[in-house]
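Good morning C.,

I know you're traveling, so I'll keep this short. The sequence:
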Amino acid sequence: MNKSTIFLFLLVIFSLKIFDATIAATGVLKALCYAFMFVGIAISLPHFFKFKGGFVLAVQLISVSVLISVFMAQYTWGQGLSNSPTTIPYAIGFVFFFLMSVRVPIKTVENIVMIYGVIYILLFLFQFTHSGTVYFGRAQEFKLDRGIVRVNFPGAGVFFLACFIAINRVTSLANNYKYLYLLFALVAVVIIILQVTRQEIFVMLLVYLIHFLRSVKLPYKLAVIALFTLGGYLFIHSNNTVSKGLGEQQKQDASYGKDYIRILAADYYLTQFTPNGISKILGNGFANDTSNYGKSLIALGDRYGYFLTDVGIVEVYISFGIFAIIGYVLIFVKSFTIPVPSDYYYLKYYLWMIMLTCLTSDFLISYYFLITTVLVLYCYQVIYEQNKLKLSTNQS
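The tokens, ready to paste straight into the viewer:
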């Protein structure tokens, strides 16, 4: 294991703030997490302009937007530069350029993600069975909701990516551990159902369905569809607390119509929140909870239910501006236009997942997902360059 691999392995866990462990919320561990991320960003800066094509421009736009946001928060809301370390986890996109420079093997990245995927499941099960005490995440995420004590476990980016790698390996002809990966994929479905987040359940099952239907013959397609349909029917009509809670929440949200709180919040932030023209282009900056800017956002959430984290891509625009939005649009478009071999379809699945959830989740901007997004874009970029080189060689 070389230095780059060790560095990347540690960078992932520190970027997740050790799965937001309460022991890492203050003190030495918190300082270590931020210091490690800062070093990762700093050593990436010299490589920022070395590459082009593929996803490079998109990552550059997003990364620069995050950097500019530090000054926009001061300009727009008077948030002092002393609060700027808050932005460090959200600037992890710069590491993409370091990875492109050192070229960590894609297989190594996959193995690191799978290791953290297993760790995620183990820690979730521990926290789920000890929900009376918050060891990971925040207290407000642990509540009786939708028929179950809802433990929305932090750091789900590596978990989702590990799931998509697992199903890819299940169908890979060269893989000798298909049943272990299948077991992981099935356990992951249970884990995501226990977290009772409707869009995550839907997207995960949709990706699984697309993957297993992609290359099988018609009888098997029908069998898979029938199996998924039967499983969904049995779950919905099982009368257990989880299915009842999800159903009741869906009915409640549907009854609100245009008064649904997320729609109202998005409308407010897009039309009334930003105070000047420059900030409508470059963003308001990322808020520190202890600043007046941060306290204003907290008050909007507490008083009106206008939580910025609930309005997805609107949060990206409000915090980082229009160029970050352009960056993500480029990523989503290229996820359809740039081909990858079938063994790497998990890269597309991950990008499609954050695209499908970008209206009502903070996956685009949460540090629970950003380091995983960097890994996906890095692997995708490497494959893009390999394909480009092959094409150039064949033509010559």
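Safe travels,
E.
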